[in-house]
Specification:
The complex is a heterodimer of chains A (201) and B (257).
Chain A (H helix, E strand, L loop, with lengths): L43 E9 L9 E7 L33 E5 L5 E7 L10 E8 L6 E6 L4 H6 L1 H5 L11 E2 L5 E2 L2 E2 L9 E3 L1
Chain B lengths: L4 H20 L28 E3 L39 E9 L10 E6 L24 E5 L5 E7 L4 E2 L7 E2 L2 E6 L8 E6 L10 H4 L4 H5 L4 E2 L10 E4 L2 E2 L13
The chains are: A mainly beta (201), B alpha+beta (257).
Chain lengths: 201, 257
């Protein structure tokens, strides 16, 4: 039955997840999905990476959602990530001024994704991080991971999650910075260098 | 050697039997599919083999994942929840109205949150360039919709009944008709993408994607109920489908958004 009666808690059971399949491309991605940082903001950072399968092949049909705090560590409550245009039925895009903290980016034919957002501030006991949710054809339940930024070794060393993960796998959660100042974060779904994925309880 | 439906049927039966044995041995009810469900071949190289690292959200109310991105009136337009009105002409097919409530694990409505859908047209064809099925495209149907839940957590869509379609995983592989749903809760941990099916579809036993939910009761929760009260006179057939988000939320917040 798919009519749930909230007055009977035993009937309130989770709806199972399913794969996004291969044909979400005309539905979920939107223009400016990865342009999360307001234009010209001094705390903007650029991120990029690839998503790989268990044989090291890049995924051309995955997408990521990024969600993070603003530079002060505050979580945005601003809508407008995918503003629609009532005149054309198309997208207006972000307004370039407000920060929603959330974005959605597809991988391209090379499995490559990129985004620009604001450098997140720290919250609670954690080192600053961006939450990442990975979706792909073949993935029956999405996967959560985190992008930590390199630089503040003391904060990373004190982070409650990074302290707990196998030291050999810890670096899969920390982006690297290339010469141009862009952060690189690859996601390996399986096999050597498999990214640490998270389960919230 | 060509992979046949009989091969996949055997694998589906074996996975189902393995789950029944886990249950009989005292294992938990599995509400979610396993990511390593091999009868759906695309999963084989795309699931992690290392165990996931558990995070107890009750230990830290400041976790980024305990909040959710916000969406509002400017993220949807008036016709976004009516997939039959997005072009100059009417799409071909049986018009349907699909409605239900978005709830959390405690049965509380999730209010003002984004619901996105996408689907094939009445002939079983997606308006997507990489689609290989040669059923006709419908110039009056894109098959994409979005809406915000109302103050009671209800969503509402008008669309056409999607057709089943072949998908080439194995010889004569057909997907039962379905609508894809993407959902947000009050916490990012509750994020859900899934598919809604229609009652009594004869393709259910053959489809490794719906069968990836090996628990019979959980699988039924993916199937909408025909609801005559949602049928619109002289216009559409009505289906009711409530959605319950899994995943923890910030329990100390008494009022959902």
């Amino acid at each position: 039955m798919t009519k749930i009666d909230p007055s009977r808690p035993q009937t309130v059971l989770p709806t199972p997840s399913h794969t996004v399949g291969p044909f979400y491309g005309h539905a979920l991605p939107f223009p400016g999905g990865g342009d999360i940082a307001p234009l010209g903001h001094p705390d903007a950072i650029a991120l990029q990476g690839r998503v790989y399968d268990g044989e090291g092949a890049p995924l051309p049909d995955a997408f990521l959602e990024l969600w993070g705090a603003d530079p002060d560590g505050e979580l945005p409550t601003t809508d407008g990530s995918m503003r629609r245009d009532p005149a054309s039925g198309g997208f207006l895009g972000r307004n370039g001024v407000e920060f929603t903290g959330w974005g959605r980016v597809q991988t391209d034919a090379d499995g490559h994704w990129s985004a620009r957002t604001l450098r997140p501030g720290a919250r609670g006991a954690s080192a600053p991080y961006l939450s990442v949710c990975v979706f792909a054809r073949g993935l029956l339940v999405h996967l959560f991971t985190r992008i930590y930024l390199p630089g503040d070794d003391a904060a990373l060393a004190a982070d409650p999650l990074l302290r707990r993960v196998d030291p050999a796998r810890r670096d899969t959660l920390i982006a690297t910075r290339d010469r141009s100042g862009t952060y690189r974060f690859d996601i390996r779904l399986q096999g050597e260098g498999e990214t640490v994925f998270l389960e919230f309880q | 050697m060509t992979l046949t439906q009989a091969d996949i049927d055997r694998e589906i039966a074996a996975e189902h039997a393995a789950y029944e044995k886990r249950l009989a041995d005292g294992g938990p009810v599995e509400h979610q599919p396993r990511r390593d469900y091999a009868p759906y071949r695309s999963s084989v190289l795309r699931h992690p083999k290392q165990p996931l690292v558990a995070i107890d959200v009750s230990k830290d109310p400041e976790l980024v994942e305990l909040a959710s991105p916000a969406f509002g009136e400017r993220d949807v337009t008036e016709t976004d929840n009516d997939l039959t009105r997005q072009h100059h002409g009417e799409p071909i097919g049986e018009r349907i109205t699909v409605s239900g409530r978005l709830l959390d694990r405690d049965g509380r409505p999730v209010r003002g949150q984004l619901v996105e859908i996408w689907q094939a047209n009445a002939a079983g064809r997606y308006a997507h360039q990489r689609e290989q099925h040669d059923a006709p495209l419908d110039p009056n149907f894109t098959g994409v919709g979005r809406t915000l839940t109302d103050d009671s957590g209800f969503y509402h869509f008008t669309t056409v009944q999607p057709g089943p379609y072949p998908w080439r995983q194995h010889l004569n592989a057909w997907r039962p008709a379905h609508i894809h749903f993407s959902l947000f809760g009050t916490a990012f941990t509750q994020r859900l993408v899934t598919q809604m099916y229609f009652p009594s579809d004869p393709l259910f036993p053959y489809d490794p994607i719906i069968q990836s939910v090996t628990d019979d009761t959980a699988r039924q929760r993916l199937v909408a109920t025909y609801d005559h009260s949602l049928s619109v006179p002289e216009f559409s057939m009505g289906y009711h489908w409530d959605i319950v988000l899994d995943g923890p939320r910030a329990t100390w917040i008494e009022e959902g958004r």
